[in-house]
Each structure stands twice: as structure tokens, then as C-alpha cells.
Amino acid sequence: MHRWTEKWRQLRDLRQGAFSQLPAEDLLADFCGALLRCAKWRLAQKYLAGTASVPLDAGRAETLVLACAKEYFFSANSLQSPEVSQVGSHVIPAAMTVFWHLLLLHQADTSNLRGIL
Prior knowledge:
Number of strands: 0
Order of helices and strands: HHHHH
Number of helices: 5
Largest sheet: none
Mean pLDDT: 78
Radius of gyration: 16 Å
């Protein structure tokens, strides 16, 4: 089992036992932010879409990805720094996945409204 997947399971269990007032979405958002900061791109993309038991609002996922890109970009010493290439090669594709998900949700909402109207 992947180490980060086990960490997510432990966080969920800890929340259920000791921190039940903490919204599950907040926990997932913090976990996704940690994955992005640790450069666990593919795993972050998976969790940014939410889990079976904890949905993550697409707008919140978008905010997390953009905040990560901003952190990487502003931590760079120059435009040739590895941090800038991280933004281009990993953070931007993660952002595009989130934006694509938002677009699909918007289209589904619009088509549902057309059926009602």
C-alpha cells in the first residue's frame, strides 16, 4: 500500500475518533495541499477529484492548485530555476485536470437546467 494512501486513512481515522467537528473536506484539502507541496503530482490529482467518502469542491481544488503554482513560482530564484519547471511540467497539468472537471460539472448543470426549463 502506498505510504500516502495509508496517511490519508490514518487522518480519516483520527478525525473520526478525536476531531469529529473538523469538516472532512477541510482535512482532504489540507492533505491535497501537502501532496502538491511534496511534489506527489499524480496522487494529488487523484485526491483533488475527491474520494468516495469525501467530496472536494472543484473550486476549492482549483484554489489549492493555483496556490501551489504560486508558491513554486515565487520560491524560484530565476525563470531558469527548477521550481519554475515544476510549475510548467506538473502543477499546470494538475490545474488543467481540475479546470476540465469544473467545465464538465458546469456542462452537466446546464444540461440539467435545460431539462427542467
